[in-house]
Amino acid sequence: MTGRAKKMSQPNSGIKCVVNTCHYYGSGDHCHADKIEVQSPNAKSTEMTDCATFLPE
Q1: Which residues, given as ranges, of the chain have pLDDT below 70?
Q2: Number of separate domains in the chain
Q3: pLDDT tens digits for range 30-39
Q4: In the chain, N or C: fewer CB atoms in 10 Å?
């Protein structure tokens, strides 16, 4: 990932996240990361993708 995301005080509008064990998680299933990175090149299904921004609490 190109530099770690910063945690914003307000949610990043348009991004829903239900991973409540993530550092960037906000109540109401909001993401407070200033940017996200989704990986896996050549993915062919949702299951083949991964949120590289995830940071455990």
Answers
A1: 1-2
A2: 1
A3: 999 999 999 9
A4: C
In DSSP terms, 25 is beta-bridged to: 31
CA atoms within a 13 Å half-sphere pointing along the CA-CB vector of 47: 0
> Residues 1, 36, 11, CA angle at the centre, nearest 5°?
145
Buried b (16+ CB within 10 A) or exposed e, 29-57: ebbbbeebeeeeeeeeeeeeeebebbeee
Q: Which domain holds residue 10?
A: 1-57
